User: What shape does this take?
Amino acid sequence: MITWMQKHKKYLVITIWVSTIAFVGAGFVGWGAYDFNKSRATSVAKVGDIDITMQKFQSGYSRLYSFYANNLGRDISDEEAEQMGLKEATLNSLIQESLLLNYASELGLSANDDEVIAELVATPSFQINGAFDVKQYESVLKSLRTTPSAYEAELKDKLILSKLFRVFNLNANEIDTELIAANALLNDEISAKIITASVIEVSEDELKANWEKSKDLYLTSQKYELLSYFIPASKENASDEKLKAFYEENRGDYRDGEDKIMSFEDAKPALIADFALKNAKRAALEEYVKIKKGESNATASTLLISNEDSKNLNIDEIKKAKIGEVLKPMESDGGFMVVKVQNIIKPQPKSYEEAKEQVKASVMASKNKKALEESAKAALNNKADFNLSAKVSKSDTEILGLSAENSVALINKIFSNNAKDGYIVFNDMAVAYEIKKQNLLDVEKFNTFKIAFSSNAAALKNSQLENGLLSSLAKRYKIEKYYK
Assistant: This one.
């Protein structure tokens, strides 16, 4: 494909804007053990006439892993990924995609090279100064550990699926729109009373009695005694010649606020820091091997860390380690740290003095909740004292002067409960309410947001159509899973 593009580059339309590829920047993650049928070692499943390759499975898993890791702001351990069912979710998603591709093929839908090229040249991640660049394209795919042929095959599948969905795209009619709007714009007129928490007194005897009864709940953190070897990132060997070579190899990573590749001079401060870190990582890996073999002469420092004070080290990796294990280098404070686990100190029950503040907070919260609940129940027997009123709909985010979080919780309580009145307890207050009147449709809001309601109705119809289609196709095409 790239060869063809180079020969016909002058014919390409490079100003087309298409959304960026879904997995650029996702990267790849480590893999555990798999049990595959050895006669089909390159595939994880087969759906109809389509093989789901190991490479495609790994690519899909990496995208899903990165999505969750980016949202959490940290790496996900193998145990967490297993609990979240990321592997199963990846396989199920690819099976659904393959069902649809089989059906698209049966309908005669396809994508040609010109369509794939149009997508490629319009992808910003493959461009330099707004134009498609072959070296940039190959560099991005190399960083993703995939090949042009594999990527282009996947892109072709995406184009075919988009055509299939256009074939089955359903629009919302007036009744659909009104039904969605009626659900969203349903509103209640309520009267309410806010009950604030009173001062709770807790005696020393109460605290001690509670601690004696539940002292096993108040434990110290597990601690890890480590031998640490720090390799700093030195900037002394960063000559211009080496930096320029490093820049040429990685220039796609250095972009300005307009997503344009920076010049060498503009990128130089960042290049120096990154080059130093790269060298430090290499030195740290060499030291790691020596430490594992018992050949290192490096000076070690003793560290004691816990969840609360991890010294910027990867606590999740350390928690998985055994006593005596040496862990791979971790980036830390302008360099890399290699650590050896010397001892694991298990959690121990805290003394009364150590646990006192936690015990006090727990006892006060319990007594406070009980007092607020009793006051709210009493308020429902005297609704004449309800001094607040509001019109409440599912789309509201703030009512009765409450915080957004408490407002949403109260609204959900009102619309998920069939009772005419009720109450909800928060940390420092309770709200008792009574529904005075119910209105089905706010015409003014309906007209204002009609386009959005129509869009939501269409999305719901198409989602139901897709689910029904997938259910039917699962019976139409044979599904073989090799993944165990």
